[in-house]
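Good morning,

Attaching, inline, the backbone tokens for the sequence recovery test we're adding to the shared suite. The designed sequence is right after.
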């Protein structure tokens, strides 16, 4: 392997293969670890986001066990990915099955990038570095140099047999990227040769593989303490981060009806809010505030009201999408504040439920979710009870 300094190269189309077929037996849970919640979304979904949003990656395929296909479908809902229930008994078989599926498609990619679904803290910057170093005759993998002294053990209980010099040793990670044809050929030729990653197959097949600077935070979740560490990293203040604040404002008309949804909470009333979706004015304003904090357009640019698929849609889908965009920008939502302006319905009896619902959607602690209400002293359209307005602000920590 050679250490690589990424350089600009002509754009090549890569497919992405997310390996998500593991059973997570070491967790001792009925649900595999890739479907467990991590700071508001599943481990698998967090791992997917940088790939699903990358302009040079298409398609993104997620290889899962047929037993967990429905669970996987819920985990990747609304993401531009393809689920393949083709997981094999070993990781190597799972990757080979995905490559064979890609080879059978009308358009074969130039390259392929393989990533473990159990590495949810992968960043877009790391993915860019790996893709910048792969070429038609070279693979590239993320890796970090070994920093600790290594000991070779023997016996039971183990005793030190030798000290292994760490000079030149690297700890392999994913993503790992390769030219498509050579990697498929290596998998076919060495199908019965057990390996632990695709770089090992590439090496045995004679394909050079570059080492690209990895990220210590890009660790694989193997045990329960790993999941706790990932939660802690996502919950702690971002090192070298900049707090960015966005604001949102929305209005919807009141019309005769049988109730409405405000901030994700159903409220019975002899009227409803009129709109293309469910017209949840509170969540609409909050969605705009989050998108504003990362300078990523507004709710209308992501969910055009002219698109019939959003007719009657639940607004928590819009909010969840905005949170995914925060993840793509490697940001972290820190605080939100929503103010509802209306004469009716009375918000006080529902305020706590609204806070709890927003906290559940966003993954924020309840003490970082504020919902307030006020009237307009009978002035204007809200004072005449013609509609409800909402203002929102959101603070997102983004990398400096």
């Amino acid at each position: 392997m050679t250490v690589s300094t990424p350089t600009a190269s002509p754009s090549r189309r890569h497919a992405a293969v997310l390996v998500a077929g593991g059973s997570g037996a070491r967790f001792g849970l009925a649900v595999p670890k890739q479907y467990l919640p991590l700071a508001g979304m599943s481990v698998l979904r967090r791992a997917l986001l940088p790939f699903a949003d990358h302009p040079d990656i298409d398609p993104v395929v997620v290889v899962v066990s047929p037993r967990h296909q429905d669970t996987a479908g819920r985990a990747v809902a609304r993401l531009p990915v393809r689920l393949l229930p083709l997981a094999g008994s070993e990781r190597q078989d799972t990757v080979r099955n995905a490559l064979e599926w890609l080879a059978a498609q009308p358009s074969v990619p130039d390259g392929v990038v393989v990533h473990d679904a159990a590495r949810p803290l992968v960043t877009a910057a790391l993915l860019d570095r790996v893709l910048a170093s792969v070429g038609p005759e070279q693979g590239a993998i993320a890796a970090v140099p070994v920093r600790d002294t290594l000991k070779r053990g023997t016996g039971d209980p183990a005793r030190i047999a030798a000290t292994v010099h760490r000079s030149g040793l690297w700890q392999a990670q994913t993503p790992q990227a390769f030219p498509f044809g050579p990697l498929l050929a290596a998998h076919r030729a060495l199908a019965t040769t057990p390996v632990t990653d695709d770089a090992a197959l590439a090496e045995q097949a004679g394909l050079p593989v570059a080492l690209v600077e990895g990220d210590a935070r890009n660790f694989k979740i193997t045990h329960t303490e790993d999941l706790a560490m990932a939660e802690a990293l996502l919950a702690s203040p971002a090192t070298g981060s900049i707090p960015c604040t966005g604001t949102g404002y929305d209005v919807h008309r009141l019309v005769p009806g049988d109730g409405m949804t405000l901030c994700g909470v159903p409220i019975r009333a002899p009227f409803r809010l009129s709109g293309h979706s469910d017209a949840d004015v509170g969540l609409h304003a909050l969605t705009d505030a989050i998108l504003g904090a990362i300078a990523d357009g507004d709710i209308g640019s992501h969910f055009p009201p002219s698109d019939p698929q959003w007719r009657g849609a639940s607004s928590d889908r819009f909010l969840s999408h905005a949170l995914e965009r925060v993840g793509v920008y490697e940001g972290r939502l820190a605080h939100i504040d929503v103010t509802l302006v209306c004469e009716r319905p009375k918000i006080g009896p529902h305020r706590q439920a609204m806070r709890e619902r927003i906290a559940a959607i966003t993954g924020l602690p309840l003490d970082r979710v504020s919902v307030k209400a006020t009237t307009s002293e009978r002035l204007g359209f809200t004072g005449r009870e013609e509609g409800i307005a909402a203002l929102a602000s959101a603070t997102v920590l983004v990398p400096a």
